[in-house]
TrEMBL record:
SMART domains: AAA
Start and end residues of each ABC transporter domain: 2-250
Highest rank taxon of the organism: Bacteria
Segments of this protein annotated with the region Disordered: 257-279
Protein name, per record: ABC transporter ATP-binding protein
Length: 279
């Protein structure tokens, strides 16, 4: 379904993605893991058309889409979600979903005057689909709530619902577990599995929650420094020494920062800098 061949994205002399090649087959949920700064989100932006690669090729459904913009890829069935949901916060959850389907007849001024029956029927169909999507996601009770008032987990479910309104074939999920409580996270996992196994959706999933990766993803790809380190099943990837070294390198840096932040000498200096009345 998706083929990346020698993909490179350079920012000056820095290669955020450096010769990345991988394949995603129809019906897979591919997990993309790696330490912070590994190039995962940049790779997503390249696949989704938000960034143009410095070199390399991207093929989707057998077609070279390397330089196609996001909207063209959207119409071909390749869509993405974001780590921070991009809802229309003043619109209701139902209206957010009804906004998604492209080329609705009601978008044409002339159609509203000359083909109002067609416009009405199309709007009724979109309305029914949006209601069915909210019911599937168990969000029917917030259908008429402003999207900005939803919880983090509900917003992530709504983002997933927006991909359903497009009949997407390949969905890029960017850290869906971020900011989601465990109850809603289990529900999100359940819905992703149903969409994959029963409705034929293919997913690429960036995630730091290894429990979620283990439950959902096969294969798993680990990136570091813009390159693909390894691809395989979860347990093979997790136990690979290169993966452990990549994560341990990040952990060591975090430990050093944490130790510096909690160094008693640093704490003493901070207390001395605060005025007495602020303590």
């Amino acid at each position: 379904m998706l083929e990346l061949d020698g993909l490179v994205k350079a920012f000056g002399g820095f290669h955020a993605v450096d010769g990345c090649s991988l394949r995603v087959n129809k019906g897979e949920i591919l997990g993309l893991i790696g330490p912070n700064g590994a190039g995962k989100t940049t790779l997503f932006n390249l696949i989704a058309g938000a960034l143009q690669p410095t070199s390399g090729t991207i093929r989707f459904l057998g077609e070279d889409v390397t330089h196609l913009p996001t909207d063209a890829l959207f119409h071909k069935g390749l869509v993405r979600t974001f780590q921070i949901p991009h809802e229309f916060h003043r619109l209701t959850a139902l209206e957010n979903l009804m906004m998604v389907p492209p080329r609705q007849p009601g978008e044409s001024l002339f159609a509203n005057w000359l083909a109002w029956g067609k416009v009405r029927r199309a709007e009724e169909e979109v309305h029914r689909k949006a209601e069915d999507t909210l019911a599937f996601l168990e969000l029917g009770h917030v259908a008429h709530e402003r999207a900005g008032n939803l919880s983090g987990g509900q917003k992530k479910l709504l983002e997933l619902g927006r991909t359903m309104m497009t009949d997407a074939q390949l969905v890029l999920l960017d850290e869906p577990a971020a900011g989601v409580n465990r109850t809603l996270l289990r529900k999100l996992e359940e819905k992703i599995l149903i969409l994959n196994r029963e409705r034929g959706y293919t997913f690429i999933l960036i995630e730091h929650d290894m429990e979620m990766i283990e439950k959902l993803c096969d294969p798993v790809v680990c990136m570091a420094e813009g390159k693909v380190l390894i691809q395989g099943d979860f347990h093979t990837v997790r136990s690979d020494t290169r993966v452990l070294e990549a994560y341990l390198g990040e952990t060591a840096s975090a430990i050093e920062r944490n130790e510096a932040e909690h160094d008693p000498r640093v704490e003493d200096m901070r207390e001395q800098e605060l005025p007495r009345e602020d303590l």
